[in-house]
Each structure stands twice: as C-alpha cells, then as structure tokens.
Specification:
This protein is an all-alpha fold. 75% of the residues lie in helices and 2% in strands. The protein is built from 9 helices and 2 strands, in the order ααααββααααα. It starts with 5 loop residues before the first helix and ends with a helix.
Length: 311
C-alpha cells in the first residue's frame, strides 16, 4: 500500500461522499420504479425507461466511485487484469446507455408537447416501446464497447506501470491505428448525435413553453385550454436533466481529452475528470425525486401524520 498523502485522503473522502449519495439516490428510485412496474399502480409512461436510466446511473457510480475511493484512501494495485477489464467495460456500457436513454426522454417530451392529445395514443405507443428500446440500448452499448476489455490491463504487476496511465488503477496498452480510429468513430459519432439531438430538443421545448406562456397571457377566457401542470413540470424536469447531462459531459470530455494527451497526466486532473464524469449519475436521481409527486406526496403525508401524532 502506498503512503497516503493529504491530497489523496481529501479526494478519497470526496469520492466516498459522491458514491454514497449516488448509490442511495439511484437505488431508492430503482426500488420505486420497479415496484410501480411490477404492481401496475400509478405507472407513468416514462417509468420503464427511467428504470433503465437509474440502473445505468447506479452502475456508473459504482464502477467509477468505488475504485477511485479506494485509490484515494491509499490502495494502488487492488485490481488485476480481469478486474480492470470488467470494471471499465461496465462503466462504458452504463455510460452509453445513460446517454441514449436521456436522449430518448428528450424526444418523448418534445413529441408530447407537440401533440394535441398528450395522454392519448402517442403516450400509449411510447409506453409500449420504452422497455424494448431500453433493452436495445443495452445490446447496442455491449457491442459498441466490445473493444474496451481488449485494450485495458491492470497495474498490479510492475511491467504494466510503464503503459499509458489513463486511470489511477488501470492502464491502456498501445493502440492500433486502424482499430483505434474505427472505435473512435463509433464512440464519438454516437455521443455527438445524441448530444446534438438533446440540445435541439431542449431549445425546442424552451421555445414552445415560451410561446405557450405568451399565448396564455392574451387569453382572458377562464374556460380556455391550458396544458396541465404535470406536463409543464415534466418538461422542466427533463430540461434540467438535459442541461445537467450536457454540462457534465462537455466538462468531463475536455478533462478526459487533456488526460489522454499526456502519457503521465496530473493526478488532480484525472480526479476532476472522474468527478465530473459521474456528476450527472449522482445528481439526476435527486432531480427526479424532487419532481415526482408520487414520492413527495408520500413524504408530505408522512410528515402530516407525524405532526398529528405529536399533537
């Protein structure tokens, strides 16, 4: 075990808090969505796909948070080749699924806003295909990231330390030009397409809501049509998720690029890249919890019951 420095200890505590918060939030939502889907009580059209999202986010937090916490607290060679391959493969797959599902959520909400009957046939059709789309995303990412285990090795043995250190606890071997270019095109094209679509969806939703508010201001008829509050709340929630994802993804991508350009990058830069890379997976469940009326009503009912009991 390496000597623990003050900087390592601080980052270990930060990653421990981040990992604990992310696992608790995502696990709580995973239980809620799984229960509603199994029992069929108060199921919403987005519950099947959100179930995939929180599961993928949980994998992201576990696969990055736990090893970085251990590394921060002083463990260095705690993963062998097999452990590194499995861990980084799971992270890449879960991260890709999280990206695809967030993109699908944005498309669903844009479609819901642009239809005159948001709770009609379109929502039913989306509800039926959400579970199938989630499975397709997992299969797609399992195939696209199949090269990851081939290019990753552990640092337990001293001869591996001379390899390119992109992670504190794992190394990447010398890349082959053709294979690396092909994998880079597949990886980047998927990310770019999803990010561009999410940005377009976000702008479209913001413009639609602004136009709707302007139209409502000029209508004085009390019986005029207004979109329900739950739809506006859902749109704001998805806009918040999209903004968070784009923000954390762009910053993490910049840090990862800087790390990849150096053979022995700064350890603080590596820690910042990991922290930003898991930021969305940690914060998104709390956004969903705060915006889900089913959960807030339970807490509100529990607090009222407690006050009555005390009185």
């Amino acid at each position: 075990m390496e000597v623990m420095t003050q900087g390592n200890l601080e980052m270990g505590v930060v990653f421990l808090i981040q990992t604990a918060a992310g696992v608790l939030g995502n696990s709580f939502l995973l239980c809620i969505y799984s229960y509603t889907l199994l029992t069929g009580q108060k199921v919403r059209p987005t519950d099947p796909i959100l179930n995939h999202l929180v599961f993928a986010n949980n994998l992201v937090v576990l696969s990055r948070g736990i090893p970085n916490t251990m590394s921060g607290f002083g463990w260095k060679y705690f993963l062998d080749d097999t452990g590194c391959k499995i861990l980084l493969y799971l992270f890449r797959v879960a991260r890709g699924v999280s990206l695809n599902i967030t993109c699908l959520l944005s498309g669903f909400q844009v479609t819901t806003l642009c239809t005159r009957n948001p709770r009609g046939k379109n929502s039913t059709r989306f509800h039926k295909c959400f579970g199938f789309c989630g499975c397709l995303f997992w299969i797609l990412q399992l195939l696209v990231n199949g090269y990851v285990p081939l290019n990753v090795t552990g640092t337990r043995h001293k001869q591996n330390v001379s390899l390119h250190m992109q992670y504190k606890y794992c190394s990447t071997g010398p890349p082959e030009p053709f294979a690396s270019s092909l994998h880079l095109v597949l990886f980047v094209s998927n990310d770019v397409i999803c990010l561009v679509f999410m940005i377009w969806a976000s702008v479209s939703m913001v413009l639609f809501l602004q136009g709707h508010m302007e139209r409502v201001r000029h209508i004085h008829n009390p019986f005029s049509y207004r979109r329900p509050d739950h739809e506006t709340r859902a749109t704001r929630t998805i806009l918040t998720l999209l903004s968070m994802f784009v923000f954390f993804y762009c910053l993490s991508a910049i840090c990862t690029l800087c790390v990849g350009l150096h053979r022995k990058p700064n350890l603080w830069l590596m820690d910042i890249s990991v922290f930003l890379g898991t930021g969305f997976s940690v914060l998104s469940p709390f956004v969903l919890i705060s915006s889900d009326t089913r959960i807030t009503q339970v807490f509100h009912f529990g607090s009222k019951k407690k006050i009555i009991f005390i009185i």
